[in-house]
Amino acid sequence: MVDALGLLRRGLNRPEKIPRYVFGLLVPSSNWGPEWRRRDGVVRFEPGGYASSPRTRPEFASNLYHEVAGLGNVLDDHLEEPPARSLEVGCGYGRLSPWIADRSESHVGVDPDVEALETAAELYADVDGIEFVPARADSIPFPDDAFDLLVTWTVLQHVPNETIRDSVAELRRVLSPNGLAVCCERTRPPADNHVWPRSLETYRHLFEPLDLVGVRERPVEPTWAEAMDTTRPAESVLVFRG
């Protein structure tokens, strides 16, 4: 169910975005509108849409710190040794990519947004062992068992119901038999017109036969206050092991 009150609240907080949002709904093929688009069955974001709630650079810095710290804590708790190769699905312009790459011998970020990947490749050209490859979650161009660590960070929640099974099947396929999958996703309502929350039990079933070995909450951070109620249910960080 779409969070109509949430949409109204965001509109009141940021009235300057209302014309873009309405125009984007009326003309979804346009380049002017909301910070996200659903094209060819895939939800894609404009550059500012990957972390759109922080309104200032200090807020963005705080948001990024909390994301990186949360991801790092999970990896510290569950990685016994640095993975030989890691995969980040839905990397966008590489906001989290270098921190994952620092923990891996080599790292690959994939995303369907070619322009975002070009930006990422330019920004992190001096980082050894990192590459960016255009791909959808349901069609990953790598062989079976290719990665020891797999990360999706608020990505699967944007995959529509009609393709989520194929997407997760691809993640399982490219993960090594003893590999680790870390997924931060919305697991409780409200839904949105580009967010599909799925329960812990649904994700457990989707990732079978992998074992769900860890679950922790990622509370809504203060920098999201303009975009959503910070008391809403937290996202869940799910850790699966092959």
Pick out its properties:
242 residues, alpha/beta, Rossmann fold, 7-stranded mixed sheet, two-stranded antiparallel sheet, 7 helices, 32% helix
Description of the molecule:
The chain is α/β, with parallel strands linked by helices and 242 residues long. It has one domain: Rossmann fold (3-Layer(aba) Sandwich). The protein contains 7 helices and 9 strands. It has a 7-stranded mixed β-sheet, with helices on both faces. A two-stranded antiparallel sheet has the order 1-2. The longest helix is centred in the first third of the chain and has 22 residues. The relative contact order is 0.15.
Topology of this protein?
Blueprint: H1 4-13, H2 18-26, E1 36-39, E2 42-45, H3 57-78, E3 85-89, H4 97-101, E4 106-111, H5 114-123, E5 130-134, E6 147-153, H6 161-174, E7 175-185, H7 200-207, E8 211-218, E9 235-241
Parallel strand pairs: 3-4, 3-6, 4-5, 6-7
Antiparallel strand pairs: 1-2, 7-9, 8-9
Q: What's the gist of this structure?
A:
This protein has 242 residues and is α/β, with parallel strands linked by helices. It has 7 helices and 9 strands. β3, α4 (97-101) and β4 form a beta-alpha-beta unit.
Order of helices and strands: HHEEHEHEHEEHEHEE
Radius of gyration: 17 Å
Q: Number of domains in the coordinates? A: 1
CATH superfamily: Vaccinia Virus protein VP39
Approximate helicity band: 25-40%
Q: What strand line-up does the widest sheet have?
A: 5-4-3-6-7-9-8
Uncertain runs: none
CATH topology descriptor: Rossmann fold
Instruction: Report the span from N to C terminus.
Output: 33 Å
SSE-based structural type: alpha/beta
